[in-house]
Amino acid sequence: MSKFVVGLTGGIGSGKTTVANLFAEQGIDLVDADIVAREVVEIGSEGLNKLSEHFGTRILKLDSSLNRSALREIIFNNPTHRDWVNKLLHPLIRIEMLKQLDSAVSAYTILIAPLLFENDLDRLVNRTLMVDISTQEQVKRTSTRDSVSQEQVHRIIESQAPRAKKLQRADDVIDNHGEISALKSKVIALHNNYIKLSNNA
């Protein structure tokens, strides 16, 4: 892939979306792995057709769309089912992401992927950027935003790669403990650097 791509990641509640939107304000195209993951299981998609062939209509809502919580329930305690679903969906997600990255027209593109390192998606990018906040702050922000228990947030954090490991692997890190104005100037500084790097790529 000849286009310059920056992989944007960070734990739950770290502020990835806010940072991504600040890049979008600079005219940069975004490809969001979470959105792509939803697109590959939309009504009529190959992904959803294969899921319903395999698991039957118990994973469908009345309108024939995917019942995520029903599927989650099935695969949560069953590694065999989980592996089957991952083997089906990961290649579909990857193909769609590459297609969207390829059709981006900005100077460089941001690939937003919460599991950038965990799913080896960093292989698809030229540079990695991590949005970082403390675990306490993650728990506080997420439980407030999503109205979920702190225990649940801790469980999600534990299912992701350790913060220290991700910090080690990231090329660039944005510390997101401050105000939005500070965040904006950090994004603009990185944006200018990525423009330079993409010109030299």
Structure characteristics:
201 residues, alpha/beta, Rossmann fold, 2 domains, 5-stranded parallel sheet, 9 helices, 5 strands, globular
In brief, what are we looking at here?
It catalyses: 3'-dephospho-CoA + ATP = ADP + CoA + H(+). The chain has 201 residues and is an alpha/beta fold.
Relevant CATH superfamily of the largest domain: P-loop containing nucleotide triphosphate hydrolases
Per DSSP E runs of 2 or more residues, the count of β-strands stands at 5
Shape: globular
Helix content: 40-55%
CATH arch. level architecture of the largest domain: 3-Layer(aba) Sandwich
Give me the Rg, rounded: 18 Å
Explain what this protein looks like in three dimensions.
GO terms for molecular function: dephospho-CoA kinase activity. Its EC number is 2.7.1.24. It catalyses: 3'-dephospho-CoA + ATP = ADP + CoA + H(+). This is Dephospho-CoA kinase. Pathway: Cofactor biosynthesis; coenzyme A biosynthesis; CoA from (R)-pantothenate: step 5/5. The protein has helices at residues 16-25, 33-39, 46-55, 68-76, 79-102, 135-146, 150-159, 163-169, 180-200; strands at 5-9, 29-32, 109-112, 127-132, 172-175. The protein is of the alpha/beta class and 201 residues long. It has two domains: 1-28 and 109-201, Rossmann fold (3-Layer(aba) Sandwich); 35-105, no CATH class. It has a five-stranded parallel sheet, sandwiched between helices. Helix 6 (135-146) packs across helix 7 (150-159). The longest helix is centred in the middle third of the chain and has 24 residues, at 79-102. It is globular and about 50 Å long. The model has no long low-confidence stretch (mean pLDDT 91).
